[in-house]
Design brief:
The complex is a heterodimer. By secondary structure, chain A is α/β, with parallel strands linked by helices. Chain A contains ten helices and ten strands. Chain B is built from twelve helices and no strands. Classes of the chains: A alpha/beta, B mainly alpha. At the A-B interface, helix 1, helix 2, strand 2 and helix 3 of A face helix 1, helix 4, helix 11 and helix 12 of B.
Chain lengths: 262, 223
């Protein structure tokens, strides 16, 4: 009896899986653009998805992740049409390996960083110099070794001459989301993370923008991949966020969109 | 909270079941060979098989990606001959799940074979049974407990794999987004509620299946 139940359950699982899969195939008749995007773009891109789809009739699917990992995947054949990276060096590398179409690559935003802390800690740090105070025991940033916002945070600390003093307070997150989680869970008293996260989490948190002169510009570049199935629709998306109605949404989420040069 | 899609759950179940099935077909013969082998080569292979457990899953996934991806020898061969890409498809998820879970299958089965009484097998041989017959009708049933333990751990590991799968199959919604990847995606998006719901669903389903397998083990022994 139990054997039959088990066998039945397993067959049910497999057939439901098959049903689920075929259901998805029927829906995909419109052009679909597959976008690989750095995880800091999650709130912004999700916000403009519906409007873009309504305006152009092109469906979007997003795969978020760390820029480095997505770049590795694209280099090894990942089926994405667009790559929105958080760091220009990865796009440059992919242009060299012929995985990104050079002419399509353009900056879509400049990232900004700032101090972030829970509202209960308001006043603990009003500017970057306050980070040396005893009230801030742990300071979280994204890992400067490979996360662009982490690098910028480190540069800002060094440019302000504070790095040596705060070095042993630093807690690294794999990316800015992890760095934010440290603050959220109370494991870090404050952090230097992306403006986009500050905007996405206004309730309960203070965010103080840092002077952009303190670090190299965080140039975020987007491009169409060489093996894109839908390159024209891919370019539509890029134009949408750099020059179209998507531009406002991007700026509302903390990405400073550069002026169109071409 | 966004709408819940159950696609990741069904994909994860299909991937884990397929990987477990393959692990049984490939792993048990290897385990038997390792059990019989007395040589240094046997010990070496045994050690190498444990390697996937030692390596960080993301690193393992990266090596699989480079080994099977479109730039690799295997990848280009598959594409030129069959027009098939392995990476970033559900098949890649099965490969990743298989690689990380097969060590458990092999180790458990090998230990189980070692516990089978040699005398019984010799008697059967003297009485005229063929080697295959002995293996299927005597060795496997006698080693059954250990084999089922292996199947359970293999299935659990295959179902829960994240790092290797993410790297070699990608996080493509409605195509390769398995349950662990969907949970991580929800966390990345800051949707704690969704993540918790997905974890709850996955836990209930996984526990039910594992419990059933464990009950099956007792049943077959008595039969």
């Amino acid at each position: 009896m139990k054997k039959r139940i088990a066998a039945g359950a397993i067959i049910l699982a497999i057939s439901s899986g098959c049903a689920a899969e075929s259901g998805q195939e029927e829906a995909a008749e419109t052009a679909e653009v597959s976008i690989a995007a750095a995880s800091d773009l999650n709130p912004a891109f999700q916000a403009l998805k519906d409007e873009f789809e309504a305006e152009t009739g092109v469906e979007l699917t997003f795969s978020f992740g760390s820029t480095g990992q997505l770049a590795d995947q694209i280099e090894n054949g990942a089926p994405f049409d667009v790559f929105a990276s958080a760091n220009v060096s990865f796009i440059d590398h992919l242009i060299e390996t012929d995985d990104i179409i050079e002419e399509s690559a353009q900056p879509y935003a400049f990232g900004r960083i700032g101090l972030m802390m829970k509202e209960e800690n308001t006043g603990a740090a009003e500017n970057i110099a306050d980070l040396t105070s005893a009230e801030i025991e742990q300071l979280s940033i994204a890992n400067p070794a490979h996360a662009p916002y982490g690098m910028a945070a480190e540069e800002a600390l060094k440019a302000s001459g504070l790095y040596a003093d705060v070095e042993n307070k630093l807690v690294y997150g794999r990316n800015i989301t992890d760095a934010f989680t440290h603050i959220e869970t109370g494991n870090a008293d404050a952090g230097i993370i992306a403006y986009s996260l500050g905007i996405a989490n206004e309730d309960g948190y203070d965010f103080i923008l840092l002077d952009e002169e303190l670090h190299e510009p965080i140039e975020q570049v987007i491009g169409v991949t060489s093996q894109a199935d839908h390159p024209e629709e891919a370019q539509l998306f890029i134009d949408y966020i750099t020059d179209g109605s998507g531009k406002e949404t991007m700026e509302a989420y903390g990405f400073i969109v550069p002026e169109e040069e071409s | 909270m966004a709408d819940i899609s159950l696609f990741p759950l069904f994909l994860s179940l299909r991937v884990a079941l397929t990987a477990t099935g393959l692990a049984i077909l490939i792993g048990i013969p290897i385990a038997y060979y390792l059990h019989k082998a007395d040589s240094r080569l046997g010990t070496l292979i045994d050690t190498l098989i444990t390697l996937p457990i030692v390596l960080p899953p993301t690193v393992l996934g990266y090596y699989l990606l480079v080994l099977l991806g479109r730039n690799s020898a295997i990848g280009t061969f598959l594409e030129d001959t069959f027009g098939v890409t392995l990476v970033f498809t559900p098949a890649a998820a099965v490969v990743a799940a298989l690689v990380v879970s097969i060590p458990f299958m092999i180790k458990s089965a090998k230990t189980a074979f070692a516990s089978v009484g040699e005398d019984l097998l010799y008697s059967a041989e003297i009485l005229g049974r063929s080697k295959i017959n002995i293996f299927l009708t005597l060795t496997i049933p006698l080693a059954w407990r250990g084999i089922v333990a292996g199947i359970t751990m293999t299935f659990a590991r295959a179902l829960g794999d994240f790092g290797a799968t993410l790297m070699v199959a990608g996080s493509i919604p409605n195509e390769t987004m398995t349950m662990p990847i969907a949970i991580y995606d929800a966390l990345l998006a800051g949707d704690r509620e969704m993540a918790n719901v997905l974890v709850a669903i996955m836990t209930v389903v996984a526990l039910t299946i594992l419990y059933t397998i464990n009950r099956l083990e007792k049943r077959v022994i008595q039969g």
